[in-house]
Fold these 4 entries.
Entry 1:
Amino acid sequence: MAEIVIIYTSETGMTKQYAKWISQELGSGCLILEEVTAEEFLHADLIVFGSGVRGGRMRKLKSFHYKLKKSGWTGPVVYFATGGAPYDEQTVSEIIASSFHLSEGRSVPFFYFESGLNFEDMMGWSRAVMKLYRFIIEKRKGKSETDIGTIQALSESYDHSSPDYIRPLIKDVQKRTGA
């Protein structure tokens, strides 16, 4: 049986919840990026890395890649990101383009899961940035439908997380590992 390790970083707990659901489904270990050492995942046949999205890109992806490089590990990685925006192909394409430096024709195994916003658990700086962003959009003249939806989404905490969203990732990992 393939050894799969789930590594995640989570500011408000939403990515952590997805990492736990994935870990349970795959019967895998689940490690926090900030606490993981290279030795803890060197035995893995495949790593699943997840983080939240901030400013259209995956948070702490550079830290994860630094730890991989430092360890010398070169196996396959499947990525997932969580965010407050509903799933759509354009959102996913923009996150991939902003997060990864891919050469033409190359792709990365990537999955996006809608989660939400949790202002109560958000760090002060992050909360302030979200409120400032909402304020800027509120002051726009001729707001679009997207602007109105964004204002509403940034008004209070919400959680749209669902274990159903992880199904495609689970299937992909099982296919890659022959499970």
Entry 2:
Amino acid sequence: MKAVLLAACLTLMAAEAQAISRYDPSRMSCGRVRATIAREGAVILRYQSTRTPGLPLYDRYVRSQGFCNMGEVRARASVPSADTKSCIVYKCKRVDTDRRFRRRIFPD
């Protein structure tokens, strides 16, 4: 019974991961990148690192806080686009709370 339940959970997680679209922002204008995120809600953007040539970087970028998991918040990020080096978008980041000082910490 436990094995069946575990298999069902893994199948659902795999299906959710395959449903998200992937794009290369370096081939799109910044406006088009933002419009794509706004239209789909959450996308994966994949691009080449500027510091390490040949190294692909990717992450999941979201339209709103509603696309983040519990314990995460929407945080500002930037990706390269065809018309600018720094297109401002948002991604989910895990938040740890420093209980002593009542502040939020974004671990990297």
Entry 3:
Amino acid sequence: MIGGVAVTALLLTLGGCASPRHASPASSAEPAPDRPADIYASPATGPQPNVVRTGRYQLVPLAPTSGQRNLLAQAVTIDLPQSMSLTVRDGLVHVLRDSGLRLCPRLSQTGFFSSPLPAVHRELGPTTLSDALQVLAGPAWRLDVDYAKRTVCFDRRARTAQMPPSGRQRS
């Protein structure tokens, strides 16, 4: 039994010493033919990538997102409590809360925006800010954004374009 353990230990010791030696990285500029190229080595020349490594496997682009370039393209989610009595204006203000835009001051006098917010509009998204605002306002209103003042206004559409086309007709 002791002889078997001694033989196993001897074989393990010799096997560890028999492993091939690796050339030091400073000794050769190119990898040895039997070794794969280092894909993580940074090239000495060439175009610089437009990303920055923030973790071992995570690269972050060095460019603004579409929502940062165009505030109406940012993703939003609406989740308002069903128990609260909210108006359309309340829903619009909630959606615009952290968007960088605000509701046009002249809309506070418009009667439509003081009407109750439909229950189906209390949960919406994720969607773009422009789509959420248009859904909350409804088909009778056209979205109008003043980027200089960062305000969102709504203009009344022509009467012919007030109702969206329906898939079924009532008889």
Entry 4:
Amino acid sequence: MKSPTSDLSPAAQAGPAAHLPPAMISDYAAGLLSPGLSLLVASHFTSCPCCRAKAARFEALGGALLAGADPVAPEPCCLEAALARIEAAERAEPCFDAQGWPLPRPLCRRLERPIRELDFTAIAPGLEASRLDGFPGETVTIRRAASGVPLVTPGARIGTMGLLLSGAAQVGGTVFGPGDCLAELADAPRATGSSACLCLMVEPAA
């Protein structure tokens, strides 16, 4: 079976080239991001040592500042969130679903089933989406696009962000590969290559 990443150049397969905005990494380290964006950030960390290192520096700075602060009772979900961030930072290798898609570990844990078992619905010609539950105030989807099809539909809200999971997408002369963040782009990224393009997309509330 052909690898989902076989259409990428060796440079594109080496690791993400499009990183997270520093402000987003800082907010993630501080626990300020929404659940959907937190999933996207943790998934990007799986394949990006550069952004993981930045997050570690932000967390170290935050720890130093908290050391001199008055103690505050933690929320019930704090321990679970902290453990998830630690695992995302330490477990850099991807996991694989039954179809051989190399998916980030945080996303594998969230899906709990292979991509082929998700319910995809057509949202545009050549573009399907499977919505993930449990993200109030956000629309979090796994999108699957045929070659030449935009990953973002017209009318997407400002702040919509994507993480390329497999395959390749192109904006102008720039080709994005697995692990690349798709945000603040002048044009909608289009799937490219002969295999399907898979993307995690997070759209904020209106």
